[in-house]
Amino acid sequence: MFRLEVKFQNLTMKEYIPQEASTLTIGRHGENDIVLRDSSVSRHHACFTKEGGNLFVTDKGSKNGTVVNGLKVESVRLEDGDVIRIGDNLVIVVSFTSNIEAGLTLTGEHVKKATVPSSSD
Asked: What is the mean pLDDT of the chain?
């Protein structure tokens, strides 16, 4: 299983464990699964898709792009330890987790949305 840690200034704000055949959207707009309140993040910035044993991140035509391990990408398969930069202040760290650690799950059907503050909040 994969775990996504949303970090703001090296502080983990929220963790997600994508479920099989699910998509997590990320952006500034409130309809996203992961809402980032940062003006450098596009309204519909990117999405994470889990397919089989693989996790992908795809940029959705964002103004500032999606950067994985220092490289701007359109879509890429993620690996353990990858660091995704979204906007100016936020990073998402990808790691593997066991089923035992999988206490927090999020699918496209979830009810609660996360909001990560911007540096100006």
From this structure: 83
Which residues are registered as beta bridge partners of 94? 4
pTM above 0.85, yes or no: no
Long-range contacts at 21-30 (CB < 8 A, ≥ 24 apart)? 21/50, 21/51, 22/49, 22/50, 22/106, 22/107, 22/108, 23/47, 23/48, 23/49, 23/50, 23/108, 24/48, 24/49, 24/106, 24/108, 25/60, 26/86, 26/92, 27/60, 27/62, 30/113
User: What per-residue confidence (pLDDT) applies to 109?
Assistant: 39
Look at residue 107 in the predicted model and tell me its pLDDT. 44
